[in-house]
Write a structure and sequence with these properties.
71 residues; mainly alpha
Length: 71
């Protein structure tokens, strides 16, 4: 387990600079979860899903974010 607070701060800056990167939002979600910031984690999850768009390359991430298991 790393420094979730430091990770969240760095990822907040990263997602401001690169808001279309779903991996940045997904990682920010994880940091928020570790910090017990469930509302922020949910917002980051939704932003990650939005950033995935229809790109099939993000299907594994989309499944994870939606709580679905692989086929």
């Amino acid at each position: 387990r790393g420094d979730a607070a430091g990770a969240a701060k760095a990822l907040e800056a990263y997602t401001r600079a690169s808001p279309q990167d779903p991996l940045g939002w997904a990682n920010l979600r994880r940091a928020y979860q570790e910090l017990g910031r469930s509302e922020d984690a949910e917002r980051a999850r939704q932003r990650a899903l939005d950033a995935c768009g229809s790109d099939s390359g993000y299907e594994p991430l989309r499944r994870e974010l939606e709580g679905r298991t692989p086929p």
